[in-house]
């Protein structure tokens, strides 16, 4: 029997506003516990929430960039539950009238493009955090994160496998970072997701029962949790059992998902309209202003790189896929006329190093400015491509400046033709047998002479000059 996997993602994106969704407290990461807390975040009785306009602007930017309907009237609801890190006893969220309605996003997975539809994106406040490892035998509560604005982006159940799920998550991360509405730093929890997985027979028209895996914060864990779930559910179904609808937790140490609570035990959140907040109305004019303020998005960038900059499609896709890499490309192009050289370095050497270390460009020590100088030094022939590769490797380790590395290590390319000519002459003198063989028609030996000059100059000779000089001398 062939089973088909159906996946839907709920992604929580932390919006990069300065202050919280309903209070003036800072959203800064990493502060001393309970120092970014306002009376509203503590849930003291009698204090009233005031919506943060910037959170709405950011949510709307997301909606416009994903071709979504923007609900010009949206409102808040209370989701009631008890948890120590939720002092009010309820979370303010948007249930009935979310700010962003149906939209879509293009993903690229398994060698193909696919459109994933987005059901909605709504604003809500984050909860605080229980801290279990600070006090012996006691749990501390840190409310710094309480009230931080989140945009919850809900996909349709249209994702077919783990690769697509990761590609979808990456596409969302790409768009929110391009839009400057989230820093995208997964290690700090700026993006987290709940993964819903179910299985059905290929020609079943109805979806199967799903398990929801909570709070995953890395690409790798999304992939592993889905793989585990597919395996678990397939085994249950193959043996004639049925999957129960439940919430599960992914344990990255054991690489398994575990049941947290079943549907029967599920909370009844008793949603009702938030009485302390009025509906939020966005005028046509405001919407238009936000539309006009949108930056060039990845898809548009990719098209421009192909049509105007004349990059290969695959190069354009890779470079436009990250804001940092696109910035690097554009900054380096200002230093040279050869944009395909810049593209080759990014897609070739830089990407190879990223793959080797399995990191994203933002996590590397290479900065836009340093990369631009590296390209400039290649273009102005200060260093050869080969030396540039070793300089890049050095930057990768140390983050040092290109020029400092070149000067400290004496890597400047030898341009002095008469010096190169002398070296070449000496090599010809020292290798009469090879010279004779070459002159007798063994053309391949030309490379030997080039290699010798390069060796003598520790790779610093300008390869083009060496070629010309040797051709002349060996005629
Ligand atoms: P809830 O808020 O209770 O988690 P929703 O109906 O809003 O439920 O769905 C949340 C997510 O679950 C959405 O991303 C949706 O695509 C996904 N989903 C719903 N049904 C299924 C299913 N049968 N299999 C996989 N994913 C599903
Ligand atoms: Mg859910």
Low-confidence stretches: none
Structural class: alpha+beta
Number of contiguous helices = 16
Instruction: Tell me the β content.
Output: 15-25%
If strands are numbered along the chain, what order do they take across the biggest sheet?
5-6-9-1-10-11-12-13
Q: Tell me the Rg in angstroms.
A: 29 Å
| Distance between the first and last residues' Cα | 73 Å
| General form | elongated
Bound molecules: adenosine-5'-diphosphate, magnesium ion
The percent of residues in helical segments reads 25-40%
User: How many strand units?
Assistant: 15
Major β-sheet annotation: 8 strands, mixed
Mean pLDDT: 93
User: Quaternary arrangement of the chains shown?
Assistant: single chain
Describe the secondary structure blueprint for this structure.
Layout: E1 3-14, H1 39-42, H2 53-65, E2 73-74, E3 77-80, E4 90-93, E5 103-109, E6 112-125, E7 129-135, E8 138-142, E9 149-155, H3 162-178, E10 191-201, E11 211-216, H4 219-238, E12 246-251, E13 256-262, E14 272-273, E15 280-281, H5 284-292, H6 298-307, H7 313-320, H8 323-333, H9 339-357, H10 368-379, H11 385-398, H12 402-408, H13 417-430, H14 432-439, H15 446-456, H16 463-473
Helix pairs in contact: 3-4, 6-7, 7-9, 8-9, 8-10, 10-11, 13-15, 13-16, 15-16
Please give a quick description of this structure.
This protein is an alpha+beta fold.
Structural account:
With 475 residues, this protein is of the alpha+beta class. It has helices at residues 39-42, 53-65, 162-178, 219-238, 284-292, 298-307, 313-320, 323-333, 339-357, 368-379, 385-398, 402-408, 417-430, 432-439, 446-456, 463-473, and strands at 3-14, 73-74, 77-80, 90-93, 103-109, 112-125, 129-135, 138-142, 149-155, 191-201, 211-216, 246-251, 256-262, 272-273, 280-281. The strands form 4 sheets. The protein has an 8-stranded mixed sheet with strand order 5-6-9-1-10-11-12-13. A hairpin with a 2-residue loop joins β7 and β8. α3 (162-178) runs antiparallel to α4 and α6 packs antiparallel against α7 (313-320). The longest helix is centred in the middle third of the chain and has 20 residues, at 219-238. It is elongated. The termini are far apart. The mean pLDDT is 93. The protein binds adenosine-5'-diphosphate (ADP) and magnesium ion (MG).
């Amino acid at each position: 029997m062939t089973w088909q996997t159906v996946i839907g993602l709920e992604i929580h994106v932390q919006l990069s506003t300065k202050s919280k969704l309903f209070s003036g407290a800072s959203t800064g990461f990493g502060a001393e516990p309970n120092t970014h807390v306002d009376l509203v975040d503590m849930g003291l009785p009698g204090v009233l929430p005031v919506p943060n306009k910037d959170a709405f602007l950011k949510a709307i930017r997301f909606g416009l960039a994903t071709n979504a309907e923007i609900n010009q009237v949206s409102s808040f609801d209370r989701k009631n539950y008890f948890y120590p890190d939720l002092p009010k006893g309820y979370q303010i969220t948007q249930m009935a009238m979310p700010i962003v309605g149906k939209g879509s996003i293009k993903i690229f997975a398994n060698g193909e493009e696919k459109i994933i539809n987005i059901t909605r994106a709504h604003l809500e406040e984050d909860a605080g955090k229980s801290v279990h490892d600070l006090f012996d035998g006691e749990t501390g509560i840190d409310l710094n994160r309480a009230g931080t604005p989140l945009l919850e982006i809900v996909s349709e159940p249209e994702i077919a496998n783990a690769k697509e799920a990761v590609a979808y998550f990456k596409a969302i991360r790409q768009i929110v970072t391009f839009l400057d509405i989230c820093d995208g730093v997964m290690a700090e929890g700026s993006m987290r997701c709940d993964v819903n997985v179910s299985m059905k027979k290929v020609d079943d028209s109805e979806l199967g029962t799903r398990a929801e895996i909570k709070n995953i914060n890395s690409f790798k864990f999304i992939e592993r949790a889905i793989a585990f779930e597919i395996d678990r559910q397939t085994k249950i179904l193959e043996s004639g059992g049925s999957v129960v609808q439940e919430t599960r937790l992914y344990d990255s140490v054991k690489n398994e998902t575990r049941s947290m609570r079943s549907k029967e035990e599920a909370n009844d959140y008793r949603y009702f309209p938030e009485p302390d907040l009025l509906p939020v109305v966005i005028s046509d004019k405001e919407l238009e202003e936000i539309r006009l303020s949108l930056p060039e998005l990845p898809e548009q960038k990719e098209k421009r790189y192909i049509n105007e900059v004349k990059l290969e499609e695959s190069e354009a896709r890779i470079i436009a896929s990250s804001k940092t890499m696109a910035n690097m490309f554009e900054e380096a192009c200002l230093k040279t006329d050869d944009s395909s050289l810049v593209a080759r370095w990014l897609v070739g050497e830089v990407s190879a190093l990223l793959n080797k270390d399995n990191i994203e460009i933002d996590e590397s020590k290479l900065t836009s400015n340093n990369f631009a100088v590296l390209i400039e030094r290649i273009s102005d022939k200060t260093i050869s491509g080969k030396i540039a590769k070793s300089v890049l490797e050095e930057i990768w380790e140390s983050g040092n400046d290109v020029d400092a590395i070149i000067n400290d290590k004496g890597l400047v390319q030898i341009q002095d033709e008469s010096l190169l000519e002398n070296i070449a002459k000496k090599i010809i003198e020292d290798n009469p047998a090879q010279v004779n063989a070459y002159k007798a028609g063994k053309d391949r030996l030309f490379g030997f002479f080039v290699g010798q000059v390069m060796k003598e100059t520790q790779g610093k000779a300008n390869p083009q000059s060496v070629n010309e000089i040797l051709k002349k001398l060996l005629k």
